[in-house]
Amino acid sequence: MAPPSAISPERASNHHNGDTTPSAEVPLEPGISQSKAKVQMPKFPQPPTFADKYAERDYLKGRLAAAFRIFGKYGYDEGVAGHITLRDPVQPDTFWVNPFGVAFSLIKRSDLIQVDHDGNVIDGGDVRLLNSAAFMIHGAIHRSRPDVLCAAHSHSIYGRSFCSLGRKLDMITQDACSFYNDLALYESFNGIVLAEKEGNDIAACLGSKKAALLQNHGLLTVGGSIEAAVFWFISLEKCCQAQLMADAAAGGRGHETVKIHDDDAAFTYKTIGSPMAGYFSAKPLFDVLEKECGGEYMQ
């Protein structure tokens, strides 16, 4: 006889109530009550809140410096290319960014420079060189997306390789579902982004999504927290790597990869594609960096 948990809904009935009407309820394992069967979700850590905007600025600048160290650790630097920006909580029409020419792996909180939306460096460390492309892309995003605290872009190897294909990501892994209907494809390349129109076009293409594939260029991610923007970038880079490998393996055998059904991808997205999922998923990255660097990046 099949165990109670394996009885099909069509054959189950409410005999204990004297009712022979078929039941659509899935039986519980023996000895498990309805209340115990309900999964109790843990309370996840939340981003800290601040009454003092200047204290919030100091904290966030420390997290931004840590983000650059993480990018450096993962090899996302390519010479002087790449940038991560933070909307300033004190002056929200300005943002903090890495000084042009300073290695990701060496950046400290005191090195960051503050830029207004006219492209003027108004505060920051000793090196006050601004990457013009950083201003054009990130300035447009911060202007058009008030919900975005942080935006990240670099020329990571698998991201830029995948972006040369001019196609969107396939839903072939659980992790890819984080970007289900939340990933834009910017189908243009006009050289280094030095014109305001190009930055505005990228921001318009991104729309309300959290990430974009910039054709022949690289990845772009945004978030309501620094942690989310960083995690989405790392995850998208790995998804690009996974698809490049899977497509090559499948193609070599004359096959195609197996795609996740839209309904399943949408369901998975609700769990792992939310802003809080991005924030929490980055926590181990920042914890490890703190342990490795001993807080040196906070100087």
Helix coverage percent: 25-40%
Strand order of the largest sheet: 6-5-4-3-7-10-9-8
Indicate the overall shape. Answer: globular
Number of strands: 10
The biggest sheet, with number of strands, parallel, antiparallel or mixed sense and barrel status, is: 8 strands, mixed
Query: Could you give the order of the helices and strands?
Result: EEHHEEEEHEHEHEEHHH
Distance between the termini: 68 Å
Tell me the number of helical segments per DSSP (H or I, 4 or more residues long): 8
Radius of gyration: 24 Å
What does the average pLDDT come to? 88
- DSSP strand (E) fraction? 5-15%
Quickly give the structural class.
alpha+beta
Uncertain runs are 1-29
